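[09:14] KT: can someone run the structure on this one? pasting the chain below
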Amino acid sequence: LDCVLPCPFTPETDPMIHWTKEPEYTPVHSYYRNQHQHLFQHENYRNRTTLSDQGISTGDAPLQLHKVNVSDEGRYTCYVTTVRLDNVQESSVNLTVYGE
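[09:31] RB: done, structure tokens below
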């Protein structure tokens, strides 16, 4: 089972997008310099996330989480900023998983 976590934001030039899971701010997915950045992605999310870059220019960076399981339950936050680290935007969503 997959799910999509929304991340609306005001469009920026060359945005940096970071998805994390609270409370430890576990790195789930990052995108910057027009590339998906998997180097610091937590091992629990490797090969399980997709961030559609089609909507980034219009202010949409939804994260698709594949093979959702109970341990994925929790609060996810999407941070969007620029390379200059100005105008930080964030949005959070709670994921509830029923069953296994």
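[09:33] KT: thanks! Residues 77 and 92 are 4 Å apart (CA to CA).
[09:34] RB: yep, looked fine to me
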